[in-house]
Amino acid sequence: MPLGEAAPAPLFAFRSAEGTLIGLGQAAALPGGPAATLAARLDTFFRSAGPDAILAGAMPFDRAAKDDLRQAARVASALPPQPAPARSVRWSLRHEPDAAGYADAVRRALDILAAEAALSAPPGDALTKIVLSRSLLATADAPIDPVALLHRLAADPSVTTFLVPLPDGQAGPRQLAGATPELLLSKRADRVASHPLAGSARRHREPARDAAAAEALLRSGKDGREHAIAAEFVLDTLAPWCRTLARPQGVQLRGTASLWHLGTRIEGRLKDPGLSAALLASILHPTPAVCGLPRDRAAALIDRLEPRDRGFYGGAIGWCDGRGDGTWHVAIRCAELSGRQARLHAGAGIVPGSEPWKEVDETAAKYGAMLAALGIDLPEDRAGTAGPPGPP
Ligand SMILES: C=C(O[C@H]1C=CC=C(C(=O)O)[C@@H]1O)C(=O)O
After folding, report:
1. Which mutation among 129, 130, 131, 218 tests ligand 1's pocket best, with the greatest number of atoms within 8 A of CB?
2. Which of 21, 234, 322, 351 is 20 to 30 Å apart from 328, CA to CA?
């Protein structure tokens, strides 16, 4: 972990190949509330703040929980300088649940999906997908420097690196930092775009092996079904708001430094260009890329099968201005930071045909970018990739 002279952390930061948006100092905050009240709160805020004002922050996974959006005192377009590397840090790690516990939860989800399929519930009622996540609590022997972390995460140009403030926790200030590959919604005037991802494979250093992994992902029926559920949900949810909506390229591979994904770029023109990007993002989220289908039933099952509340993992992070323009990403490949602690999260879509230990391996791979940025060297067997325990 590159610790050094701590540069003051920005209020928020978003960095991608398209540009960098940094918020410095806090000018105001939107009163926190659930997704259902966001439209009214945005309206009140921008009525007095004006069209050029920017609100940025995070929406939690649970639509009924409070979001956290803030206005910076000023904005900049470059990250604060990278601190000099300092001494190496020692980490203690706790998996919640451990690999076997996660595989067990996947088995339980598969049993429920199978029972639902057998019941032949009315179309639209049966549970067809659920995304199950696990978390890893990493505790350092020194405070984590968010600016150093941002620089390390930004080494992968294919993702959007972010840092946003969260409501204070028991141990003081908290932030969410990450490197997400998934665009939830961007909006400029009447143009909207989304790029749902679902279906994953680990990448490999050796080019032939890497290409074979990508090819196998494109051919996988299980990953194709997992992806189609997410892409169709986004199309169906955006359709009533749009006068045109299309997926011009169909399903394509989307590569990050450590993973291949199946992705569908969706583009549309809004009926009402005045709609806020934040509002549209809140209507879309959580998509079946992080929750499941039907959404409410999947969310209730996640609550039962996961040991911890997800907080802001699986929610949305981004910004919007007073004209309604903005960009929101799915809050994945991230960690909640608080002092010396980072809680990493990783999830995987479960559909009939999923295999519990493969999902364990996939979630371990999804921790990869954040672990590397923190400087944590996690042996594969301790990330849960060694396969099921027991006699051969
Ligand atoms: C839920 C996560 O990833 C989602 C995004 C891309 C691929 C996914 C998958 O293949 O399961 C997930 O739906 C996560 O990284 O925690």
Report:
1. 131
2. 351
